[in-house]
Structures are given as C-alpha cells and as structure tokens.
Amino acid sequence: MLIIDGSQGEGGGQILRTALALSAITGTTVKIENIRARRPKPGLQRQHLVAVQAAARVCNGQLEGDALNSREITLTPQSPVSGDWHFDIGSAGSTSLVLQTVLPILLHAPGPSTVHLAGGTHNSLAPPLEFLTDSFFPVLYCIGISVTAELQRHGFYPAGGGAMSASIQPWQARVPLDLMERGKSIGRHAQVLISHLPAHVASREAQAVKHALHWSHAEVDETEVKAAGPGNCLIAKLRFAQVAAVFTAFGELRKSAEKVAQECVSQVTGYLDHDAPVCEHLADQLLLPLALGAGGRFRTGKPSDHTITNATIIGLFLGDRIVLADNGDRTWTVTVRGGTA
Amino acid sequence: MTPASQATSHRSAAKRSTRRPLVAIGLLGPTLDAGRDEKRWNRWRPTVGLHMQDDLAISRFEMLHQRRFDRLADGIAADIAKVSPDTQVTSRHIEFTDPWDFEEVYGALWGFARKYAWNPEAEDYLVHITTGTHVAQICLFLLTESRHLPARLVQTQPGAKRGPEDLRSPEDASGRGSVAGTHAIIDLDLSKYDQLASRFAEERRAGVSVLTAGIPTRNPVFAALISRIEQVAAATRAPILLGGPTGAGKTVLARRIYELKKSRNLVEGPFVELNCATVRGDAAGSALFGHRKGAFTGATADRPGLLRRADDGVLFLDEIGELGHDEQAMLLRAIEDKVFLPVGADVPVLSDFQLIAGSNRDLREAVRAGRFREDLLARIDLWTFRLPGLAERREDIEPNLDFELERFAKDSGKRVTMNSEARADFLAFATAPAAAWQANFRDLGAAVTRMATLAVANQAGRIDAALVREETGRLHRQWHPPAPDDDGLAILGQRQLDRFDQVQLADVVRVCRRSRTLSEAGRILFAVSRQERKHANDADRLQKYLARFDLTWDQVVGDQP
C-alpha cells in the first residue's frame, strides 16, 4: 500500500484526483492522509467526495473514509471497468473535474465507455468543457487517445442542472508527444455565455474584451444559453497550428462584467507574453497521460504549484520520470519518460 | 454514541466524519425561501443554501410547511434536487393559523416531534432554525433543548466569509458562498464544548466550596454527598431533608444551600429558620403560619408567620419531627398548594418557598409510632441526605480544627496558634477510634473555643500540649461519664428477679438507653441471630422480652436525661 501525504504542495483536490487515478490504473492500494490539512475547513468537501467516489466506481474499488470532512481515505482498486457511467453531482462539484478524474482510468478499461454527467458544467471550480474539447483532447489525440465530449445543457453555479457526456475509447497505440512550438496562428475567438441575466452584462464583457485585446467584432460573440438558472461565462480561445489555448472567467454575484472580462484578458495576455505552446491548465492535465503513455516533451510557462504537486504524486507511483527545466526565456521544458521508455 | 467516542467527541462534534446519514428538519420559509423566476438563484435562500454547503451532506430533508405553500415547497424541492441530487426531500404538512402564536406553533411542532419516526441509533439530525417566524425558532429551540427533537441546531446566514483560503487555489477562489451562505451547527449538549465544560466545572467547584464553607474535605463519602447536594440545590425547588446526628452541621448546611442558590439567582426571598423543638402548640402554629389579631389570648396584633416571610426564599425547619400534628397537616398543604391559613384567619395566604427539613430522628420510626404524618414524610423524603457525624469523618477533623481556630480569631479579634506538639496531640486524640464526638461539630467547636479562650487568657495566644491535655481529658469525661451506681434495674422498683435474669436485663437496659430507637436496640441485641433471618422483627422480639418483666420501651428509656 502506498501512503501519500495529502497536505503536501498545493494540498488540494489535485492530489486526490491524480493519486486515485494512478491507484486505479496501477492496481496499487493507496491511502491518502492529511487531506487538505492546512485549509481552514480540512478534509473532504462535497466537490472532492463526488470525484473520489466516481474514481472508485469506475475501477470497482473499495473505499474507506469516503465521508464528508474525512481527512484520510483508502482506495483498494480492482481494475478499470468499461461501460455506461452516470454521475449526478449537483452544483457542489464540477462535471469537468469528475471527467478529468475518471478519464485516465477508463482509458485503461478493456472496452469503450460512455460517461454521463449531470450538475455544474460551468463554474469556477475548473475549466469548463470547452477547455477539454478544444485544448486538451486534441493533444490527447496526438498521443493516441480517442475521446470526445459534448454538452447537452449548461449548468452554472448555483442552480446547476447542466448535462454533458463523453465517450472514451480504450487507449491502443501510444505515441510520444513533441509539443515545443505553437506553430502559425490560425485564429482567435471569444464567446460570452449568458443565461437569465440582463443583455448588457454580455455586451459589456464583449466590449471590454475587444477593447483590451484589440479584437474585432467578428472575433467576439455573445451567446444566450438555456440553463436552469442565471449564469455567465467568458471563454477565449487562441488557435495555433499545433495547439489551442482556452481561457475562462466566470461571472458571479457582485462581480462586474468588466472585472470578469479583465480576469479572462489577463490570462490571454499572460499566455501571449511568452511563446510556449502549453498553458498552465493544459500542463497540469498532460503530465499523467504522458507518464502513462509513451512520454514526450512540451514547453510551457512557469510551472504552477499544481503542476509540481502533480509531478510529485506521479513520481510516487511510477518513479521519477518528469523533468522540469528552465529555459531562461520565461519558458520551461517538461520532459516525461513514458511507461515503456 | 459509545462512551469511548463521547470522551473524544469535543472537536469531532462539530465536524464529525461519519457515514451515518444526516437528516435535516426545517420549516419552509414563505418569505426567505420564496422566488419563482430565475432571479431566485441570485438570492440567498436559507433552505436551498443549507443544501449547498461544501462540508455538509444532507441525506434527507424533512420540509415542514403549511398546505397553502405546497407550490413553493415543490419548487424548493426541485431546486434542492439540482444543487444536491443525493438529498431526498420529504414534504410534511404542519398547520397553524397564526405563525406568531406561541401556543399554536409549539403545539404543531410538538405534534410533529411526537409522531416522527426518530432513529437516532442510525441517523444524525439537524434542526434548521433560520426559517420561520421568531416564535417558530423559539419553539424549535425549546423542543431541541428538551430533546423532543433529538437533534443539533443548524443556523444559516447569507454571504460568504472570504478568507485568505479563497485565494490559494482556483478550487476555492470563487464567489460560491454568496448564494449558498454559510452555516453553523450548534450542539445544545453543552458538555461537548471544552471551554464551557471547564467553566461549569469551575462553577461547580465554587458551589461545593460554598457548601463546605471552603473547608476542604478528605472524606470521599462526604465529598460525594456535597457534590450531589450541589447538583440538587441548583436543580430543584422541591423539599430537601437533611438527616444525621445532632451537631453534624444540618443548620449550617441549610444556610449554605440557600447562599449557593442565592449566588446563582435561583432564589429571591430570605432564609428563614426555625427549630421546631423550641416551639409547641399554639406558639408553633402562629410562629409558622402567623395569626390574625385576636385569634387567641395574647394575639394583640397580626403576625405574618415564618412561612409568609419565606416567600420566594428558603424555609429551614430543624427537628421537623417535633412538629405537632395540626402543624404537620398545615405544612403539608402549604408545600403542596403553596397556600395556608393563618391562625384565626379565613382567607388563605400564598407563599412559595423551598422547604429544607432537618431531623436527627428516624422519621420512619416516628411515622410507625404515629407521631409523624406519613403523607408529610412522603412529600419531604424526596431528596434525603444523611450528614455523617464527625466520628465518621475523622480525616476531616484537621481542616475543621483550622477552620474553628480561624473562626475564633474572626469572632474574638485575637489570633490563636497551636504549637506542633499540641496539634499532634490533639489530632491523635481526636482521630482515635475512642473519641466519640457525641455532639459532633458542636463538640469540636466548643473544644477549640475553650482552648483558644484559655490560651488568650494565659499564654499569649498559644495553645500548648498542657492545654490540649486538659481539654482532651474534659472531652473524655464528657463522653464516658463514670458509671452511676444504678445498674439500670432501678426501674423494676421493688420487684425481685433471679440473678440469672438480672445480668441479662441489666445489659439489655444499657443497650436500650444507648440506642435512639427500639429498632436500633433490637438490631444490636440480636445482631447474631438476625443474620440467620429466622426472626424478622428485632423490635418485636425486644418488645416481647421487655414485656416479660412488664416493661415498655418508654419506661426503659423514659428516665433518661
């Protein structure tokens, strides 16, 4: 059994998700202690609990300590189980986070799987589905992974009520990644999603984005979506020949439209400040598939706490196989040794 | 909850990690929970917000509401299903016409609590008190406090507390709290709170200290007794009966119980005391119950009586066994109905007092002998405490010696010390089994007063071994007077007995005169054979034995001083 200190590094849900996925895939029983120990409200919260329980279900594993506020859980996995999975998580969690947790596990299942998720699809807990489909999944495709996802209905915080599904094929051929350059710029686009809010919220956000980034009318859309409750989300996409970057910001009560726009814009300008292809969120997500696959390398901005924690947890299961090297030009090269390399 | 987990539950009480289902019970708030269009999601709604707490997973929600709010209830149930799909919402009708009418609301909630199928072994319960009128909140609080609702309280409030945590990680960096609000769980089991528990313990220690006048006790039996009296004194206004030998401190303790109650604002009126042995007949009646002017010869003015004076206070009746029959009947009515009739009056008077009764006699024996009303004994025999005599608390003699010396200094203004040899001598004498301490603390107090007075007069305030010798000699003679010539058989008068019988009867009479009751004498005399339980009634055997010589119990002990 592997024992992991859940308070290390960034000390949040990322440790749980990575550790549980690796436990399920490698068949190693894992015990995670001191979960969120340094937070004012330590232990598992509802959003973590739904991810933990989903991970256990798709590997037919046995959980101990999977209760609210629990600071210690143990997963005794069996093996990944393909099939039709349904998770209704309410608005306490994020469908993207649950999908990110079960995806690597189901890639190792014997057959194809479909995952249906209901609840919060667009909230500030995680990048929304657009990040997965437009940025993350294309890179996965490059290393041999076939996964698609679609949104049936938006679910904003707090009303939730969204729905999405993903279909996952077993991972057959593993291909190394080499993603060092962005390639030629193909296009850029920002979309304001709005539900049950005054129209001026969307137009002000759109206006602020155009003004700050000098984007044209054609590059910014306002879309009214049908959701159970009010909600607002701003998604900016930058497309290059080899990669796409997706940045999001969420409207919430007492946060002005201009503030929402500015949060999104500063992520875009941060990305445009250097020339590395992989943004911070994508870097987090890539480490695990690369380590489980044929490895590879990519260039990214300054690694975040999340990324470093993630690399540490992967090392505990698979041995040190991730090297982060500072290129001296505000970019880092991440080299991952694959499972067979 | 097992005892083991109770011991460690202080912290976990608020944040327990358990798989027991959590069931919340709450009133639907027709105002705070209202809202039908999508804008409702921009507002904090307590019932929905309760189900959006990050660290609270509610398995079932019992939503109490009136029939006329069915539509709102359905909408809330649907919204709860969105934010917390694992929660099962049960709608329960509860009817009252005026939600501000305490009696009606309490009755309705009490009815729910009575009928509800509680299963505290398997489920944990929360009562949500944020919704409903203030009257409803008070009712929910009272029902929870009285354990009709075996639950903890949960209170919710709007707005997020934004701490530094929110900025640490994207997972937390959100305005999620503003619509969900925050919650706080309140466990009314105050022993679960470390700080409060230690303050209560401190209050209890102070209470015990009041009861013992600050004299530490080394006697575990006495310590337990005082601790129990402290609890009872704080908890009840029912009568208290203090037994035990004369001089054991009944009067002092009664006064201290009163002072303890007074210090905790449990009593407003005065402390009123009467030794029933000091008044007889009409005098007793009018002393206790008062009289109207002209009620009897000498009643030249209205007299309110002690019961009236003790209104809202404490009435201590020492030697209650000495009270006459009529007074016993009136006292019983005064205790039960809080009214009594002053002598010569025809309008009853109200008085609400707590009775503390003292008796060094066995009141049960007095009931058997027809001297004390059985119903009155039953009424005052609810909290009965027997104070041990000083001989049963020999380890406490030393602290009480210091206390008496201190008291002498306070009363006389002259400090008296005792040299170590004198002290050792006195304690050796006082704690030896031979020291009878017949009058208990009265004996000890008198001994110290005598020694201290002589020390002040002769020896510059220092009690030495010679003074102690003198005093212990005096005490010894007091407790063991030289046997009189009378061998106890003088009561036979001119009658002659066989020498065989003389010896036996003389010993029986000696034992009788040392005993307080016929039963006690019987127990001593038949101590061996009664073990075999062949003869159930020692008193009866003794009575029959005395009858053989034409003697009664009263004759045998009657000529005692």
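The longest strand of chain B covers residues 22-27.
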